[in-house]
Every structure is written in structure tokens, then in C-alpha cells.
Amino acid sequence: MTTATLTRMVLPDHTCPFGVRAKQLLEGAGYTVDDHVLTTREEVDKFEAERGVATTPLVEIDGETIGGASELERWLEEKGQPVG
After folding, report:
1. How many structural domains is the chain composed of?
2. Alpha-helical runs (H) found in the chain
3. Residue from 66, 15, 63, 72 nearest 39 by CA
4. Cα 11 to Cα 61: distance, rounded to the nearest angstrom
5. What CATH number did the domain enclosing 26 receive?
């Protein structure tokens, strides 16, 4: 089974719905999810700056950066994998 790395935001007052969606998509497609949860605004800002991205979540599979939930959904559809 392939492992996907998911970095997503779960702050005390906000859980990013796109991160939840990305995790559901990955699990639905049969991936093992290496779930990296960012729990403070500082962690989120640092991650985004280090990776050069404007938002989370960020999905990576087999060394390939897929993107966020919308990009993941398109990527899975292109691969012919189930999208739930």
C-alpha cells in the first residue's frame, strides 16, 4: 500500500475542512496517510514559508507534490482511482 504525506491545519479554534477532505480522499483511494497536523498559526506560517505554498493542506505521494484537496481530487481522477 502506498503512503501519502498530508500536512494540514488543525488549530484550537479551526479545523481546515480542505485538510479533512484530503484525508478522506486519500483513505477512500486506499492510501495509508502519514498525517502531519499543524496545531498553531506559527507552525502553519513556517510550513507555508518553507515550502513556498500559500495554503494548506499539502499532499505528497511518492515524492511528488500533488497540492491541496482540489488538486488531489483531479490527480486521483486522472489516475483512475476512486474519489469518494
Report:
1. 1
2. 17-28, 41-51, 69-78
3. 15
4. 24
5. 3.40.30.10
pTM of the model: 0.92
Tell me if 84 is assigned to some domain.
no
Task: Give me the domain span that covers residue 26.
Answer: 3-78
Is residue 22 assigned to a domain?
yes
- 37-76 in b/e form (b: 16+ CB < 10 A) is ebeeeebbeebbeeeeeeebbbbbbeeeebbbbeebbebb
Do the domain assignments include residue 9?
Answer: yes
Q: What is the pLDDT of residues 13-60, one digit of tens each?
A: 999 999 999 999 999 999 999 999 999 999 999 999 999 999 999 999
Burial of 36 (0-12, 13-18, 19+ CB in 10 A): middle
